[in-house]
Write a structure and sequence with these properties.
509 residues; alpha/beta; 6-stranded parallel β-sheet; 3-stranded antiparallel β-sheet
C-alpha cells in the first residue's frame, strides 16, 4: 500500500546543514524523487525567510513545494520557522485524516515532541537530515530517518537543468529506460524483491508525470518492460495471482555469471569429503564449505530479524536476493547461487515457520524463525546426514564427515554421534509408519549403537528429519494427506535398499 505523505521542510536547517557539511547547494529534486519512490506527496511546504534563500525559490516552484514566507523582523528570527511548522503539522494531523505519513526535513532536536505527538496520533514519521547536524534524539524518535548524504550518494545522474522555455520536453528513450531502472532501485530500497509492473509505473509517473511509453513506439507498459528486458536492464516474471509481470533488476539471475566472476571459488573438497558432497549435489543439495555456510546462515538470520523488528514480512522468494547482496560484502564473499542452495536446504529442513506453527509449504509464504543461527546450522547438518543415509551411505568415515560438515577433522566424535542419532530417528519414523516387508517392527528403543538421548534437542532433530522427507517446492500445492502417503512410500523404498546400514541391521535383528 502506497503512502499518502505530507512533506514539511525546516529549510534553513536543512539547507544550511548541507552547505556547512560540504554537500553544496541543497538538491531539492533528489529529495523529492526519493520520497516519490515511497508514495504520493499530497502536501509539500517549506518554511524560511525567502529573502535570504531567494536562489532556491525556483527549485521549490518546479518541484511543487509551497514556499511559506517567514520574513525576519529586525534580524531576529529564532524559532519562527519551527513554530509555524509545528502548528501546521498538528492542524494537518487533526484535519487531514487521509495523511498517514509526515516527512520532516530537519535535524533539530526541538522537533522531537512534535514527532512523538504525531506518532501518538498513529501517523508514521520519516525524518531527513544531514548526518552531523541531526540530533540523535530526533533520529531515535522517528519511524525512519534518511540521511541526506545517502540520498545524494544514491543518485547516479545529476539533477536535470530546467529547460530554457516553459515547454514540456519528453524524455529520450535511453533516459526513459534509465528512469525505469532508477525507479525499481528506489522501490527495492523499501521492499526488496520483484515489484508488480503496475506499482512500478505508478512510481515512475510520480517522478515523471509526462511519461508515456507510446511515444517510444510501444503499445503498452508491458511492451516497454519487455524491451527493457531484451536490453538486459530488468528481469521479468509472471505473477500467478495478478496475472501481470513482476519486475526485478537482473543482478541475481541474468547477471549471475558476472557475480561468479567476481566471487571466490569454494574451497575444493577432495577424497571422501568431496565424494560425499557429490552425493548431495546429485540430489540438488549443495552444503558448500563450512565457513561459507556459516556466513550465509548468520547473514540470513540477521536479515530476517531486522525485517521482523521493522514489522515487515519475510518471504523466501525475496529473501534470497536480499541475503545475496549482504554476502557479497562478507569475508569470504558468497555467490548468489550458493546462497540460494543454503536457503533452499533451510526451507526443506522445515526451519521456516508459518503463522500456524507449521513449516511453510511454498517460497512465497510469509515465515518466522524459531531458532537462532547456530541452531539452524545444527539442523542443516542433520538434514545433510539424513539425505546421505537415504542414499545408502554408511558414513563410517567420521573424519571425512567432520570435514564436510564442520570444515575440519576435529569433530569426528560429534559426527559419529550425529550419524547415530539420525539413524535412530529414521528407524523410529519407519516404525511409526507401520511394518514393512523388510522385517518385524522395531521397538524404537536405544541400542548399544544408538544413543538414548539426542545430540542437541530431540525436537530439532525430528524437525530436520521430517523436513528431509518433505517434498520440494514443486509439491507445495498438494494437500497434506497426499504428501504424507508419498513420504511413507519413499521411506519403505529406502529401507528396502539400505539393509546394510546399522539402523537397518538393528531392525532386522
Amino acid at each position: 500500500m502506497e503512502l499518502n505523505m505530507c512533506v514539511l521542510m525546516d529549510f534553513e536547517n536543512i539547507a544550511a546543514g548541507a552547505e556547512k557539511e560540504g554537500h553544496g547547494r541543497f538538491d531539492t529534486r533528489a529529495v523529492m524523487t526519493r520520497l516519490k519512490e515511497k508514495g504520493r506527496i499530497l502536501i509539500a511546504r517549506s518554511y524560511g525567510d525567502w529573502g535570504r534563500f531567494a536562489k532556491y525559490k525556483q527549485d521549490m516552484l518546479e518541484h511543487a513545494v509551497q514556499a511559506v514566507e517567514l520574513t525576519s523582523y529586525r534580524g531576529q528570527e529564532k524559532n519562527r520557522a519551527d513554530i509555524a511548522l509545528a502548528v501546521d503539522a498538528m492542524e494537518l494531523a487533526f484535519r487531514r485524516e487521509y495523511i498517514d505519513t509526515f516527512v520532516l526535513l530537519s535535524g533539530d532536536s526541538d522537533f522531537t515532541p512534535l514527532v512523538m505527538r504525531l506518532r501518538e496520533l498513529n501517523r508514521r514519521v520519516i525524518g531527513i537530515g544531514t548526518r552531523r547536524s541531526s540530533s540523535r534524539l530526533l533520529v531515535e524518535s522517528c519511524d525512519e530517518f534518511i540521511f541526506y548524504e545517502s540520498i545524494k550518494r544514491g543518485r547516479k545522474t545529476p539533477s536535470k537543468q530546467p529547460p530554457a522555455s516553459d515547454a514540456v520536453e519528453s524524455l529520450g528513450k535511453d533516459e526513459a529506460f534509465a528512469l525505469l531502472v532508477e525507479t525499481i532501485e528506489g522501490l527495492q530500497k523499501d521492499e526488496p524483491g520483484p515489484a508488480l509492473a503496475g506499482r512500478v509505473k505508478q512510481s515512475l509517473l510520480r517522478k515523471e508525470p509526462a511519461f508515456d511509453e507510446t511515444e517510444y513506439g510501444y503499445s503498452g507498459f508491458a511492451r516497454f518492460l519487455e524491451a527493457a528486458r531484451d536490453k538486459g536492464l530488468v528481469s521479468l516474471s509472471r505473477d500467478e495471482r495478478a496475472g501481470g509481470y513482476r519486475v526485478d533488476l537482473p543482478s541475481d539471475d541474468r547477471a549471475e555469471p558476472a557475480d561468479d566472476d567476481e566471487g571466490e571459488d569454494l574451497p575444493l573438497l577432495t577424497g571422501e569429503p568431496g565424494r560425499l558432497r557429490g552425493v548431495l549435489l546429485r540430489q540438488g543439495i549443495d552444503p558448500l564449505d563450512a565457513l561459507s555456510r556459516h556466513v550465509v546462515v548468520h547473514e540470513f538470520v540477521d536479515h530476517v530479524n531486522e525485517r521482523a523488528r521493522r514489522k515487515k514480512r519475510n518471504t523466501l522468494i525475496y529473501t534470497v536476493g536480499d541475503v545475496a547482496r549482504r554476502t557479497r560484502q562478507t569475508e569470504p564473499p558468497v555467490r548468489t547461487q550458493h546462497v540460494r542452495s543454503v536457503l533452499q536446504s533451510i526451507f526443506e529442513a522445515g526451519e521456516l515457520i508459518h503463522a500456524d506453527g507449521n513449516p511453510i509449504r511454498k517460497d512465497s509464504a510469509p515465515f518466522t524463525l524459531q531458532h537462532d543461527a547456530e541452531e539452524i546450522l545444527r539442523e542443516l547438518r542433520s538434514y545433510y546426514v539424513a539425505n546421505l543415509l537415504r542414499q545408502g551411505e554408511r558414513l563410517n568415515d567420521s573424519k571425512a564427515l567432520s570435514m564436510l560438515l564442520w570444515g575440519d577433522e576435529d569433530h569426528a566424535t560429534p559426527a559419529e554421534e550425529l550419524v547415530a542419532w539420525v539413524q535412530h530417528e529414521l528407524a523410529e519414523e519407519d516404525t511409526a509408519d507401520g511394518p514393512t516387508d523388510d522385517g518385524p517392527d522395531s521397538t524404537g528403543e536405544a541400542t548399544d549403537d544408538m544413543p538414548a538421548t539426542p545430540v542437541g534437542s530431540s525436537a530439532a532433530a525430528e524437525a530436520s528429519v521430517d523436513a528431509a522427507d518433505a517434498p520440494g517446492t514443486g509439491d507445495a500445492g498438494e494437500d497434506a494427506p497426499k504428501r504424507k502417503r508419498r513420504r511413507r512410500r519413499r521411506k519403505k523404498t529406502v529401507a528396502a535398499t539400505d539393509g546394510d546400514t546399522p539402523a537397518a541391521e538393528d531392525q532386522a535383528e
